[in-house]
Amino acid sequence: MSIDVEDENFNPWGEGPLLKSVEDSNDTDEAKKKKTHLSKSEAKALTKLEKEEIRKTEELVINGEEIEPKSVDDFEKIVLANPDSSLHWIQYIAFHANKGEMKEARLIIKRAIEKIHFREEEERLNVYIAWFNLEESISSEDEVETLLKEILKYNNEYKVYNRVSLIYSQSGKIKKAEELYKTMARKYGKEIEVWSKLGRHYFESVKNLKEARFTLQRALQHLDKKHHVEVTVKFAQMEFKYGEIERGKTIFETILSNYPKRIDLWNVYADTLVKAEEIQATRDLFERMITLNLQPKKMKAIFKKYIDFETLQNDDFKVDRIKKKALEYVESKVGALDTD
């Protein structure tokens, strides 16, 4: 199946060629000439028509009226008024694709890529990804690979790999997704995101804990040292969700032993425990947190977080106990100031 969308006779304003053969009034019956361009009056009339269609569509939007395209004419009006909107172009593409009109869908894709301003990189990329989505579901592997190369050529490679790998993952093409994740790790090894995506792929899709954990080791070898804590936290969270909770706890404890004053890390650990419904472990962690010798503002936030947690557990006794401890903390600070 060809995925070429070139069509010399394509007319964006209707069916068939835009320019039709007309007789020149000065020609004889034997000699006829065909127009190859619009006359000034025809071009002016066409421009006026386009502006009028844009004005009508804009009025609907301004008045808050819902524009629900149901026909080719409806879509033409919308994309004419919003040529840089990938959303409208993709809806137009889907309109044809859902009716099995793949040739028409591809023609709209081609128009969208040509019409969207080259500076609107995200909008153009959205259309390219919609194109990939379409072909990935109906075309051969070779055709899809050819299209992917074209998309990579005209768009930001990193963003393309990100979007396409997700498509493969969601469609169950695990090996294809893994190939792209590995490519990203090889090409963009200094980016935290590529390692967390590859790790999650092994944790969630492949369910290979050994490979997932090895991915963390590789990440630490490639990433700058300043990113080590962040990527390790991400893998600890994935252990909670897809691997072994106890191993996740061990990773967090190791991090906190090295960075005991990083309240953000304590909070992430607490949130991860709550999400995993590790109630007693969360409570034990908060008990440790309220003994930290941090700035009063940070301690206030910790006490509030602990109170909110116990409130959700509907334990009034524990809530009162924490409030009492918070008051004791405040009094101790006031007493220290008086002593000074």
From TrEMBL:
Localization (cell): Nucleus
Keyword Magnesium: no
Domain Suppressor of forked: 207-332
Protein's GO biological process: rRNA processing
Region annotated Disordered, chain positions: 1-39
GO molecular function, one term: RNA binding
Pfam family, one: Suf
GO cellular component: small-subunit processome
UniProt keyword rRNA processing, yes or no: yes
PANTHER family, alphabetized: PROGRAMMED CELL DEATH PROTEIN 11 PRE-RRNA PROCESSING PROTEIN RRP5, PROTEIN RRP5 HOMOLOG
Protein name: RRP5
Lineage of the species this protein comes from: Eukaryota, Metazoa, Ecdysozoa, Arthropoda, Crustacea
